[in-house]
Amino acid sequence: MDDSEVYLTDVTGRDGFQMEKDWIETEDKLLILQGIFNAGIKRIEATSFVSSKSIPQLKDAKEVVGNLKNEEITVAALVPNVKGAENALESGVDEINFVLSISETHNRKNVNHTVRESLEEVYSIQKLINSPQTVLNVSLGTTFGCPFEGKYNVSKVCSIMEQLINNGIDKVTLADTTGMANPKKIRHYITTLKEVFPHVQLSLHLHNTRGMGLVNLLAGYKAGVRHFDASLGGIGGCPFAPGATGNVCLEDIVHMFMEMEIPIEHSINLQKLINTSKKLERILGYQLAGQVMKAGTAGEVIKN
Amino acid sequence: MDDSEVYLTDVTGRDGFQMEKDWIETEDKLLILQGIFNAGIKRIEATSFVSSKSIPQLKDAKEVVGNLKNEEITVAALVPNVKGAENALESGVDEINFVLSISETHNRKNVNHTVRESLEEVYSIQKLINSPQTVLNVSLGTTFGCPFEGKYNVSKVCSIMEQLINNGIDKVTLADTTGMANPKKIRHYITTLKEVFPHVQLSLHLHNTRGMGLVNLLAGYKAGVRHFDASLGGIGGCPFAPGATGNVCLEDIVHMFMEMEIPIEHSINLQKLINTSKKLERILGYQLAGQVMKAGTAGEVIKN
Fold first, then answer.
1. Cβ within 8 Å, pair B184-A252
2. Which pLDDT tens digit goes with each residue over A87-139?
3. Which of the 8 DSSP states describes residue A101?
4. What count of CB pairs under 8 Å joins A to B?
5. CATH code at A7-293
6. Options 1.25.40.10, 1.10.357.140, 3.30.360.10, 3.20.20.70; which CATH number does B7-295 get?
7. How far is B128 from chain A (nearest CA, A)?
8. Which ipTM was obtained for this model?
């Protein structure tokens, strides 16, 4: 196993905030995202460029991106279609993360397109991007199974990835939208996909829906994945996937990697991350799923 | 890696109930433990024989054991001293699980003994047991670190295990009382201990304090451990260890092993286990940490 560094993308601003029904003030959103950045996380998926009718919480997408941007940070945004990509590019994002689902049923519910239509959208977005500095990543929702269509074989994922790669996409995120993966499946998928598509940068976007968030993440790491999404306190889910609970928790992952002495890109200040998570908990007004924010790190010793 | 079966011990009745401040009726306790047994878990640590002054919740230990016992079930009970062992034997338990902590500070707080005194207690208990049917297991609390003394090396565990083994103990549970382990540490500990003590039956008792319950469990499995403790809904903790949160969740473990096609001893009915967990949630009156009980299994498909 190679000991290359792990790259973490915070998705609190997008996958986290999109699930919150009560309006979060833009300045509170920025406070949290800046806190995450100040703790050492340099790649932040800050928002989605979607219809404000479908996700009103993210109607301040342009403002969030505009205020967050600085030279040290990579700001990404999720987009479901060409319209979203145009708005994202206009706002000045560094990376566009286009989402489509492996499952027809989920893709229809999530972005109101067939998978074929979504593929056409992504090719149009490629043409829109005319700066070599702007990265295009494609996230494959329900990669490890769909709550409506059930489980399917990795060949279904291969078939869609092949089409993307033939069109020049080289960064793909495998999203376990409703936590249907397990360590054995992760290993099988990653091993297969790395063998079939050796030049693609694979990321994992995992949810803790069935308690397997961290164990799946470590299985992905052991199979060679080095790019992971996570959210502060483990908030989030998918508004169009019943039963979807939070993302894997950013500070719990950082804590695990630090305890295991697995190197992470950039130096991360775990205590700052935990403090930001506590701040987020106060803003949201309910207990977050993160465990390290409650228990403290394994390195803390209680004085008698 | 060998594909031998996994053995699960439910500790809801002991490690779970001991943390509950409000009195749980004995018949409710039995309802839950019978439900766990009916779902296919045949080894149950049902209670502790401790002073009812220190843990009033378990003052019905004798009644619980008496009512639970039948030919198909192995009923275990935790004991902290000779007095507890005498009471446990009198009640007719199949197995005595003696607890002592690796850490002097925690052992003092937990059972009010030095480690040396606890070792003397266990040797006296050995002499008490005069039926070959009654099993003696020793649980080593704070094996992977202590909230008061911090982290320590596996050699500290080796030294205590050596004394136990020289006195004929051949079943030892490594307890991560406050969730200080990580997968790397688990692997290092298990590999070392299996090499030094090849004839000891090692069990793992893990807590999810820092979110690593399942990932540590799988690391233990991969290192060759086949015996694991767990509690329904992930309830429990240690009343004398600050920051200790719940055990690894029984039904989430069963779900993970089933999804990974890892064989478990006896045929377990996961749905019955989940139903019992929901019953427990109603009895306790707060939301339990279990994830599968909320999301359903990964095999469930939602009809459109």
1. no
2. 999 999 999 999 999 999 999 999 999 999 999 999 999 999 988 889 999 99
3. E
4. 129
5. 3.20.20.70
6. 3.20.20.70
7. 36
8. 0.95
